[in-house]
Amino acid sequence: MTRPIILGIVGDSAAGKTTLTRGIAQVLGPENVTIICTDDYHRYDRKQRAEIGITALHPDCNYLDIMQQHLSQLRTGQPILKPVYSHKTGSFEPPIYIKPNKFVIVEGLLGYSTRGARDSYDVKVYLAPPEPLRAKWKVKRDTQKRGYSEEQVLDELTKREPDSEQFIRPQRQWSDIVVSFYPPSDDMDESNGHLNVRLILRPTIPHPDFTQIIYSGDGANLTSAIRLGLDRDMGKPVDVLEVDGHATLEQVNKLEHIICSDMPYLRNICDRESNPELGKVAGTTGETLQSYPLALTQLLITYHMLRATQNHQLGETQVVEQLVKI
Ligand SMILES: Nc1ncnc2c1ncn2[C@@H]1O[C@H](COP(=O)(O)OP(=O)(O)O)[C@@H](O)[C@H]1O
Ligand SMILES: O=C(COP(=O)(O)O)[C@H](O)[C@H](O)COP(=O)(O)O
């Protein structure tokens, strides 16, 4: 029996988890994807949190044991009865029955905080926009969609900072890919459509071979709109791929070709003529976002999910072959 492939998307509040989740589900086909938001595993509702003086980021404020149990069940293809937290009302609603599709995307604040949970994912992504950009996104989203005033959101960010530092940001070390959308030259007012992306690629999963981009194009890797280099992240060596929002279609096509050429399903998606929607996604405040950095990020993550599917199926075939031999 095939099991679902599980993608984790972890990051602080308003880091862009829901937006990226939507974009990847769109590429994989929404009918193939089950989305789980781990905010549903909050232990206390909004009123209780305020009374107790605990933030939603604290592990004690979440049923992480049940979250982990559900992840293991989903990984083996079993259904779960998932709690439901409403960001609209700040309270809980009746639980819902969920049977996993071919792909499961699990997005939330504390998805990598326990060893058992980490072991459940096939691909782990951590979202890390610069803090001023995240604050801007959070103010916009929480004032428009969650009924908070700007002052309340800014106060909440200050209150949450110690927990962000202690419990959220350290989870970056467990990810296979760290995604940071960032404005060029610290210009916060730059329109979101022109954000660059920095992708930190850890050697924990095999990435497409991007080294050929260094030797192609204008030859000046450092000044090019697409840059590949080596760095360290949380003390460990990593590859870093950066794509500027103003990269040209020709430059981006080369990169997309590398990602798409050995993944048959992706080939159709990569063709911009038949798929003009590539890299387009509806943000959680209703805006339409579309950019080459977003398209490449979606493609790379989808590539890894499809690869995980192939590996998993290959593994099964080998097991069957061995069983036949015995
Ligand atoms: N890649 C992106 N480019 C531009 N804006 C973004 C991007 N990701 C998120 N945003 C903005 O940030 C807001 C918060 O994002 P959201 O996906 O709701 O965060 P999270 O699910 O992590 O809390 C969105 O409403 C959108 O305005
Ligand atoms: O930090 C988050 C997580 O959501 P996200 O990652 O989408 O920001 C929310 O503030 C809590 O879930 C509480 O929700 P609320 O503030 O609605 O009570």
Number of helices: 9
> What structural category do the secondary elements indicate?
alpha/beta
Question: What would the average pLDDT be, to the nearest integer?
Answer: 90
Query: Residue ranges: pLDDT <50 for 5 or more in a row?
Result: 322-326
Query: How much beta, percentage-wise?
Result: 15-25%
Terminal Cα span: 20 Å
* Overall outline: globular
Catalytic activity: D-ribulose 5-phosphate + ATP = D-ribulose 1,5-bisphosphate + ADP + H(+)
Organism: Aetokthonos hydrillicola Thurmond2011
GO molecular function: ATP binding; phosphoribulokinase activity
Enzyme class: transferase
Write the layout of secondary structure elements.
Layout: E1 5-11, H1 17-28, E2 33-37, H2 46-52, H3 64-75, E3 80-85, E4 92-98, E5 103-108, H4 115-118, E6 123-127, H5 131-145, H6 150-168, E7 177-182, E8 196-201, E9 226-233, E10 236-243, H7 249-260, H8 264-270, E11 280-282, E12 288-290, H9 292-325
Parallel strand pairs: 1-5, 1-6, 2-5, 6-7
Antiparallel strand pairs: 3-4, 7-8, 8-10, 9-10, 11-12
Helix pairs in contact: 1-9, 5-6, 7-8, 7-9
Account of the protein in words:
Helix 1 (17-28) crosses helix 9 (292-325) and helix 7 runs parallel beside helix 9 (292-325). 37% of the residues lie in helices and 21% in strands. The strands form 3 sheets. It has an 8-stranded mixed β-sheet with strand order 2-5-1-6-7-8-10-9, with helices on one face. Strands 3-4 form a two-stranded antiparallel ribbon. The chain has a two-stranded antiparallel sheet with strand order 11-12. By secondary structure, the protein is α/β, with parallel strands linked by helices. The longest helix is centred in the last third of the chain and has 34 residues, at 292-325. It has helices at 17-28, 46-52, 64-75, 115-118, 131-145, 150-168, 249-260, 264-270, 292-325; strands at 5-11, 33-37, 80-85, 92-98, 103-108, 123-127, 177-182, 196-201, 226-233, 236-243, 280-282, 288-290. The chain contains 9 helices and 12 strands. The protein starts with a strand and ends with a helix. Strand 9 (226-233) and strand 10 form a beta hairpin. It binds adenosine-5'-diphosphate and ribulose-1,5-diphosphate. Ribulose-1,5-diphosphate is lined by residues 13-14, 17, 39, 46, 56, 87, 90, 109, 146. Pfam families: PRK (PF00485). Belongs to the phosphoribulokinase family. InterPro entries: P-loop_NTPase, PRK, PRK/URK. It catalyses: D-ribulose 5-phosphate + ATP = D-ribulose 1,5-bisphosphate + ADP + H(+). Residues 6-183 form the Phosphoribulokinase/uridine kinase domain.
